[in-house]
């Protein structure tokens, strides 16, 4: 288990931001409750005078910055340098906790000169309290991410039972062998492993929306709008659609420019309306607005 490759959702950028935010807020709330009851930390966590307040604020701010920097390193190193396993991930988290605990002990012993207890007790207790204050939210948020990912996988499994235009059901992975690969009018969608999971006529696709590590393909199925959930990054999907009318218009959207009915220039930016009633307007960010408008005027 510990040598198994770490699921991507545990080091996905948005999840890391959520985890750091929740962990810091929980740690502050925990310390606010625990500190008045502890005789080894009250000496410098007390907020009754200006000096102790400054040191308390400094510790919290420095620890938060350290966590942010650590998670930024984790994210980028996972992309280029390190193949994260469960063991490496656990050790990284424990390393953060130990270093913050040692920093707390250093302030207590060297700056605030906490006395009345052996140094070893203060160091050990600092690490223990840090483990409780940060370890608990680390575990809870990771479990939450796992549950959310499992729900998305279940949604994908349900979406795999879909019907093509000829009415043929695709109910297993084996069915992907029959997906068309050389017809420009058919768009094949692969998952993050490169396996083909879904094929649909280009003319039936309206837009693709990113949802974390997944994308939702919205298309016309027998006159109604249906979506297919696929585990992949929107950037990978965009790269695979190069040379087609499918174009990126926003950080989280790719649209079929052939099915655009209107591009509206509103006060807060451009919006796309499709030639299908009931579809929500899709925003166009400034980064992509020029290319989208140019493509639309060429159609």
Tell me the quaternary state: single chain
Average pLDDT metric: 81
Number of strands: 12
Which secondary-structure class do the elements indicate?
alpha+beta
Give a written overview of the molecule:
By secondary structure, this protein is an alpha+beta fold. It folds into two domains: 8-157, no CATH class; 161-298, OB fold (Dihydrolipoamide Acetyltransferase, E2P), CATH 2.40.50. The chain is 48% helix and 21% strand. It contains seven helices and twelve strands. The strands form four sheets. The protein has a five-stranded antiparallel beta sheet. A three-stranded antiparallel beta sheet has the order 10-11-12. A hairpin with a 2-residue loop joins strand 6 and strand 7 (224-231). Helix 4 runs antiparallel to helix 5. It is elongated and about 80 Å long. Residues 160-178 have low confidence and may be disordered.
Ordered list of secondary-structure elements with their pairings:
Blueprint: H1 13-34, H2 42-45, H3 50-80, H4 86-111, H5 119-159, E1 162-163, E2 169-170, E3 186-190, E4 196-201, E5 205-211, E6 214-221, E7 224-231, H6 234-240, E8 246-250, E9 253-256, E10 260-266, E11 269-274, E12 282-284, H7 286-298
Antiparallel strand pairs: 1-2, 3-4, 5-6, 5-9, 6-7, 8-9, 10-11, 11-12
Helix pairs in contact: 1-3, 1-5, 3-4, 4-5
């Amino acid at each position: 288990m510990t040598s198994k490759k770490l699921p991507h959702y545990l080091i996905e950028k948005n999840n890391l931001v959520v985890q750091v935010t929740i962990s810091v807020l929980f740690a502050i709330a925990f310390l606010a409750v625990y500190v008045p009851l502890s005789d080894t930390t009250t000496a410098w966590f007390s907020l009754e005078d200006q000096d102790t307040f400054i040191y308390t604020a400094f510790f919290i701010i420095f620890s938060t910055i350290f966590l942010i920097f650590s998670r930024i390193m984790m994210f980028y190193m996972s992309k280029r340098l390190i193949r994260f396993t469960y063991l490496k991930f656990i050790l990284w988290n424990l390393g953060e906790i130990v270093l913050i605990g040692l920093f707390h002990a250093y302030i207590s012993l060297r700056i605030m000169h906490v006395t009345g207890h052996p140094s070893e007790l203060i160091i050990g207790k600092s690490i223990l309290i840090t483990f409780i204050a940060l370890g608990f939210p680390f575990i809870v948020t990771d479990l939450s991410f796992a549950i959310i990912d499992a729900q998305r996988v279940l949604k994908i499994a349900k979406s795999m039972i879909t019907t093509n235009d000829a009415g043929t059901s695709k109910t297993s992975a084996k069915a992907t062998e029959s997906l068309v690969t050389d017809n420009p009018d058919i768009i094949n969608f692969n998952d993050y492993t490169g396996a083909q999971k879904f094929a649909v006529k280009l003319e039936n696709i309206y837009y693709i929306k990113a949802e974390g590590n997944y994308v939702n393909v919205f298309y016309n199925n027998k006159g109604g709008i249906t979506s297919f959930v696929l585990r992949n990054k929107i950037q990978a999907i965009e790269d695979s659609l190069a040379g087609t009318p499918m174009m990126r218009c926003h950080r989280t959207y790719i649209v079929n420019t052939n099915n655009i009915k209107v591009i509206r220039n509103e006060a807060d930016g451009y919006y796309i309306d499709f030639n299908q009633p009931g579809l929500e307007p899709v925003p166009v960010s400034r980064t992509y607005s020029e290319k989208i408008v140019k493509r639309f005027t060429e159609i």
